[in-house]
Amino acid sequence: MTVIVWDVDPDMDGNVSDSWEGVRVKCLWCRSDGKTVLAADTHHRIRGYNFDDLCDFTVLQEDHPVMSFSVNKADRLALLNVANQGVHLWDLQDRCLVRRFQGVTQGHFTIHSCFGGTNQDFIASGSEDTKVYIWHIKKELPIATLTGHSRTVNCVSWNPVYHQMMASVSDDFTVRIWGPRSSSLDGVENDKTVSLETTNSSNTSGWHEMVS
């Protein structure tokens, strides 16, 4: 697979600026420095490609395939969905594994997890067992498990403005919107409560499905 960057200058007519020849790339992320792109490849690693210095380097190495990853707003932490391993949290600066989140079923389907909450102190991920898992970033065990989908949940996205809302997408052909039971967004049509399994007593408010 070739890694290519196009210049967005309107006078460049979409010409290729730089490229690297390499292994197959599964996922990309542009860093906040405006010059580095992170890429997960088939060698179970994430490499950095610097388009100013035209250099590349290994950022982290896993023992199993990295199916997808995302980076938090501080550009410091990376959240990886790893085949047969689940969700891993890495420190990009220190290049070390910080935490392995437990509970999620992750085989070889591509599942996308995300950071969320006001300060991105929470983690959410879909799972092959049809559930959505939520963790506090400092705890390995989930604080909430959301049920409602009937097939693999392959993507979740936390609302960046209304931090009490989250969306999930599944192979059951539905998109579901979730929020806490104490949410102020009342009166939404088709509002219905779904079951919530909690493993942490601090999660007393619970979540419910707002729209599907």
From TrEMBL:
GO cellular component labels: GID complex
Gene3D superfamilies recorded: YVTN repeat-like/Quinoprotein amine dehydrogenase
The entry's keywords: Repeat, WD repeat
InterPro entries reported in the protein's UniProt record: WD40/YVTN_repeat-like_dom_sf, WD40_repeat_dom_sf, WD40_rpt, WD_repeat-ST_regulator
WD repeat residue intervals: 146-178
Official protein name in the record: Wd repeat-containing protein 26-like protein
One BP annotation, GO: proteasome-mediated ubiquitin-dependent protein catabolic process
Family matches, as SMART domains: WD40
